[in-house]
Design a protein that fits this description.
single chain; alpha+beta; Jelly Rolls; Arc Repressor Mutant, subunit A; 3 domains
Amino acid sequence: MTDNTIRVTGNDLFELAASGQIVHCDKLFRTSHDFKTDEQLGFHSHKVALFDGFRIQEWQSLFNRDIAVEMEYSLNSVLNLQFMQQGILQYSAQNKTINQKGGENYMWAIPQFLSGSASYRKSALYSSFEIGIEDRYLEKLTNRYPDLLTGLYRRYQKGNFWEFNGKERHATSCHMNAVISQIKNAQLMGNIAEMYVEAKVLELLTLLLYQEEYPERSLCNQWCCKRKRDIDKIHEARRILLSEFKTPPTIIELSRKVGINDYKLKSGFKEVFNQTVYECLFEYKMELARKMLLDTDKPIAEIADGCGYEYPSHFTNAFKRKYGISPKMYRTLHS
């Protein structure tokens, strides 16, 4: 860092928030918050979503000068799963320094009381995705899987700041990136979003433990979408598909719109969303139909048309395939 480095403490951030220079944004989940700075220091966006037993954080920074952020933590201790996505961030705590690099992942413990600092370079873009697993949730998992987690939990219980990976640096696999992408888009799952996120958090923890146990093995060789750019294109394809659900493009047309071949598009949907392109479209239309049946008094024929079905009979058959009963009966039972 240069001599003109600005040092920002946690209290400074709270003062920026109080003065309106950190702007609160829309919530991601029921218990979450989101803030960003103005142009005084550059740009920093920080999203936090709280769940029962863990929290998810996603942040991105691009400062207009060298910055050293000094923080003092006084929170519940957590096991932190960090996936550095961009930048090389130098983090120091308890006489230890970790260089966190984009494309690598880290598992480390944060005790209840911890002071440390993170160094950011001017005009360098940083971004990270993190999961903080709380003590009681980790204990519950350890009791469920003692052979797998007892050693990890005992080390965690010592209450020191430590890095589980040690000197070994593990690359974030394409499978991990796909799961992270699924978590970020979990709102699309509707009422089951929180359950879905918990399942994906456990999947990420499993992948990290597998990588620690078998570092020489790569799960990416079998995957079609190995780069973040490919995964972003799959999400863009889904957005286009659902925005044009009444007259959806063919797979060939959709693949051309996002700039990938049809094989990668079809394989990518299975990898990222765990469903085919047409399963994705079908689920979306059926959820839309369900909401229209419950929230409106529109006749069945109008709902069928609103969901992209030319003939009400085709809509009824599709609805029965999904929910087991006719749209009319579904409305009657839930009215």
